[in-house]
Amino acid sequence: ADAAVRRGDLAGRRVVVTSGGTREPLDPVRFLGNRSSGKQGRALAAAAAARGAQVTLVTSVPTELAGVDVVTIETALQLRDAVVAATADADAVVMAAAVADFRPADYAPTKIKKSHDTADDGSADESAPTITLVRNPDILAELVTSRGSATSPVIVGFAAETGDDTGSVLDHGRAKLERKGCDVLVVNEVGVDKTFGADDNTVTILRRGSDETVEVGPASKAAVADAVWDAVTDLL
Ligand code: CTP
Ligand code: CA
């Protein structure tokens, strides 16, 4: 659809978009994070607002965006709470956030020092600490499991993949779509020099139950966003 046709095609719809990488704190000054810039999610929110939707953007990247309710979060658990609250009466949810799969099991309320006294003889312990991780909830999978028949938003996932010995980027994408049970999966190939922080993106859009793929790009993240909303509006 071209821009003129699209304009207003999300009018009266409520959509939720997540973006950015979550930050999982170790202590007051340190966190485990990832390279997500939040730009694709921001473009998705802007595109939905331009097409008439009422938009909530749940993001780790503080931002202001005309016509968009921004909820700033830091951790995966906070993102889950914000998404669940915003999704109650939503028509679509797009999970573009790079949610940390794990978080540190313990949070140190004071800064972790590189050298600390041992309990017994008072001598300094110079050993490197071991960080124990625990799993974060899979928010996308939870959204799929918890959607009722009365309120059933279209659910879109993103998959950042690198190909490996066990399969190509697309193989991993298809397997992930089946595993997650979402309606649409937007697959992109990543690497330190690809996608992260860039203004352009190249993606393949997969639909559950369909062998058709839509390839977009290299294109602006705004153009990718419009292609994602095209896939969503087809399902609304
Ligand atoms: N996602 C989520 N909650 C998580 C992890 C991921 O909601 N704890 C969402 C992401 O926002 C994305 C989709 O799931 O929309 C796919 O994320 P991805 O990291 O590619 O998938 P995983 O299932 O975590 O698989 P893996 O990292 O092992 O490839
Ligand atoms: Ca993951």
UniProtKB/TrEMBL annotation:
Lineage: superkingdom: Bacteria
Co-factor binding comment: Binds 1 FMN per subunit.
KW Aminoacyl-tRNA synthetase (keyword) present: no
Pathway, per record: Cofactor biosynthesis; coenzyme A biosynthesis; CoA from (R)-pantothenate: step 2/5; Cofactor biosynthesis; coenzyme A biosynthesis; CoA from (R)-pantothenate: step 3/5
Chain spans, region Phosphopantothenate--cysteine ligase: 15-236
Binding site for CTP: D101, K111, P137, D138, I139, L140, F158, K176, K180
Keyword ATP-binding carried by entry: no
UniProt EC number: 4.1.1.36, 6.3.2.5
UniProt KW keywords: Decarboxylase, Flavoprotein, FMN, Ligase, Lyase, Magnesium, Metal-binding, Multifunctional enzyme
Reaction catalysis annotation: (R)-4'-phosphopantothenate + L-cysteine + CTP = N-[(R)-4-phosphopantothenoyl]-L-cysteine + CMP + diphosphate + H(+); N-[(R)-4-phosphopantothenoyl]-L-cysteine + H(+) = (R)-4'-phosphopantetheine + CO2
Cofactor(s) for this UniProt protein: FMN; Mg(2+)
Chain ranges of the DNA/pantothenate metabolism flavoprotein C-terminal domain: 10-234
Family from the record: In the C-terminal section; belongs to the PPC synthetase family.
Job description of the protein: Catalyzes two sequential steps in the biosynthesis of coenzyme A. In the first step cysteine is conjugated to 4'-phosphopantothenate to form 4-phosphopantothenoylcysteine. In the second step the latter compound is decarboxylated to form 4'-phosphopantotheine.
Protein's name in the database: Coenzyme A biosynthesis bifunctional protein CoaBC
Organism whose genome encodes this protein: Knoellia flava TL1
Gene name tied to this protein: coaBC
